[in-house]
């Protein structure tokens, strides 16, 4: 079926006049009449009957006009959806992130983004750094937020986002609570280590190595942040953690920070995208967090 002719017929049927349809479409009346006649021959049915200065729909014409209305409303909906996708106000946004940004940085930005773009579905996958990069490389995520390392990959673009300070913490009643001491003094305490491969553990060992000091013995090993914090809150040992991870507990007074002379280490968090152009929802999200961070 000729959709151009169907559109002309639908306009004439809606307005009840071939002449008015021609004026609305900025076409000549004979051109519109010829197209409608061609459509009638194509489908083998009479659609319009002249009536005074207008036209009347046949039974077949009434049915076709109703179906054409559904078709062109769907066309309008498709066009509107495509415009929303181009504007970044519709579609889906898949994010991948390591533990720190997923839990301490992204929630407020996702909430703000959803308030601004309620029509966009957002999905967040929390994983380690290599898995987050793989999700991005295999088109299962559009943005990856990776903390702890500065990953370089020929297919990925890295944008620095946040530098999180690392800190030593102890129980609020510990003799070193709130004190400023040397690293050598700090390392005399029994330490609670995170699992092997965790950023804090690797940074602590690297710090000791750079200062030619032995790493503190493992007092306990805990495979999780909350477990580590709970042990410190109960009064055992020291830990080397991210300030983002510990800030609320320090503010609440249940643990305390120990300042170390000459030591300042950070946990970098970067935004990764594929080097090809980001989708509109992804670019809107990135623009929002970089503009307001």
TrEMBL record:
InterPro entries with a match to the protein in the record: LysR_HTH_N, LysR_subst-bd, WH-like_DNA-bd_sf, WH_DNA-bd_sf
One Pfam match: HTH_1
The keyword Protein biosynthesis is assigned to this record: no
Entry keyword set: DNA-binding, Transcription, Transcription regulation
Domain named HTH lysR-type: residues: 1-58
Similarity comment text for this entry: Belongs to the LysR transcriptional regulatory family.
Record-given protein name: Transcriptional regulator
Organism: Paenibacillus cineris
């Amino acid at each position: 079926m000729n959709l151009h002719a169907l559109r002309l017929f639908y306009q004439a049927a809606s307005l009840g006049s071939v002449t008015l349809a021609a004026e609305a479409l900025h076409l000549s009346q004979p051109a519109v009449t010829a197209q409608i006649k061609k459509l009638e021959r194509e489908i083998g049915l009479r659609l319009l009957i002249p009536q005074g200065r207008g036209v009347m729909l046949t039974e077949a014409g009434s049915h076709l006009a109703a179906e054409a209305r559904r078709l062109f409303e769907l066309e309008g909906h498709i066009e509107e959806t495509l415009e929303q996708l181009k504007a970044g106000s519709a579609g889906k946004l898949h994010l991948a992130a390591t533990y720190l940004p997923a839990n301490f940085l992204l929630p407020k930005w996702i909430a703000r983004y959803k308030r601004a773009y309620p029509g966009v579905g957002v999905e967040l996958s929390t994983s380690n750094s290599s898995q987050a990069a793989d999700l991005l490389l295999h088109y299962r995520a559009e943005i990856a937020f990776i903390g702890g390392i500065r990953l370089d990959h020929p297919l990925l673009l890295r944008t620095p986002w946040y530098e999180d300070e690392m800190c030593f913490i102890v129980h609020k009643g510990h003799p070193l609570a709130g004190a400023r001491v040397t690293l050598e003094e700090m390392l005399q305490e029994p330490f609670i280590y995170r699992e092997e491969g965790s950023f804090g553990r690797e940074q602590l060992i690297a710090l000791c190595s750079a200062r030619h000091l032995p790493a503190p013995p493992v007092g306990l090993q805990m495979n999780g942040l909350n477990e580590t914090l709970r042990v410190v809150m109960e009064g055992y040992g020291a830990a080397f953690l991210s300030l983002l991870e510990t800030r609320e507990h320090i503010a609440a007074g249940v643990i305390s920070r120990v300042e170390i002379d000459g030591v300042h280490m950070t946990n970098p968090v970067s935004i990764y995208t594929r080097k090809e152009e980001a989708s509109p929802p992804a670019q809107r999200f990135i623009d929002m967090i970089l503009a307001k961070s």
